[in-house]
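Weekly modeling sync, notes
Attendees: S.R. (lead), two postdocs, one rotation student

Agenda item 3: backlog of single-chain predictions. S.R. asked that every request posted to the team notebook include the full sequence so nobody has to chase files. The rotation student volunteered to paste the first one in as an example of the format we agreed on. Action items at the bottom.

Example entry:
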Amino acid sequence: MKPRTKGLLLGGILIAMVLVLALSLNRTAKAQHFTAKVERGDIHDVVEATGTINAVITVQVGSQVSGTISKLFVDFNSRVHKGDLVALIDPALFKGAVQQATADLENAKANLIAAQTNVEKARAAFVQAKADYDRTVGLAKSGIMSQQQLDLAKANFDSAKAAVEGAQANVTQAQAQVSLKDAALTVAQTNLNYTMIRSPIDGTVVARNVDVGQTVAASLQAPTIFTIAQDLTKMLVYAKTDESDVGNIKVGKEVTFKVDAFPKETFRGKVSQVRMNATTVQNVVTYDTIIEFANPDLKLFPGMTAYVTIPVATVQNALKLPNTALRYKPPLAPEEILAICKRYGIEGGERKTASDTAAAAEAPQTAGGSQTQPRGPRSDTAVVWKLHSDNSMEPVKVSLGITDHSYTEVTAVAKGELKEGDELIIRSVVAKSSAPGAPAIRR
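Predicted structure, as returned to the notebook:
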């Protein structure tokens, strides 16, 4: 073979290898798209929150007197009726106080009797002094008695009169002492009665805070001995709801909830109140939504954690798209995205992308049912990217409705065309070598 022919052959082989390599690189540069179909179906917009189960009425039974617990007549889960004796405080000191008050009262009554006797004695002396004075006045007019004797009789009369008034005052004072000692006896007897602690309601004991032999001090505030729930067949859920959700929650709305104790069961209740008392934790504002429900089998206990779902809105047979499509952005430069959107008549293409909308709709929630950051208002429009059979992309501008955090309702198509069964891009994979500086996976 001639050298020239041999050189031409080698050159052709080299060119062919370059072409094959170029085609291979071109194939690897092509993005691989993952899609999800536009569907038609129902969407249920709900508010999800976490709450605590409580009894409708819970009474803390305390002690109004200080002392040592000598007996307990009920324990956890005991059924009690109004007026039942549930605990007894050692009554020895209070019985002594009653006996002392009783003795003081009897002494005051005896003093009253003595004062009344003195009144009678003073009245008799007064009658005698008055008779002597009257006789002395008559005899003095006849000249039989001297003026000195008349003056003495008058002085005795006035003294007897003053003695009667003094004796009556002593009676009034003795009567006041009787009333005072009687009141002291009533207080002592009341304190003695308070050593017998009784249930104020019909219910179930859900907590016992003392043991026999423990001393309770009621000097500053009444210590809690028992906590009694009135009726565990009717209970409430206190659900913490985010401030952005309370405007959509209506009183009387049927709700569902689950508890960890019965994970396969769904319980139903009704919104009875949205309380205006706000709670702020780390700049997140929540409100208590009260949900009432029936608990006829006593399956649910106070203090259980409830995972509440409150329906807000529902649409049926709606055109809906996955929220992952709302978060998608093409693996292109912003200028290229703007150019493509402009070609299809959509102005400001990347700014109209609804990734922020979907992120707000699916923001993570805390254990209390509220989001970790305050949510802003959800956008009403978005741009999604439809994939054609030739692997080309087309932006479509849509108006959004309600969302169930997985799918979002399409209320109208503003630019482009979108129908059931269309493929929407939710993720793109691009080789690193084909897009310098770009990530391998674009969502």
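Discussion: group reviewed the output briefly. The chain is about 35% helix and 35% strand.
Action items: rotation student to repeat for the remaining queue; S.R. to check formatting next week.
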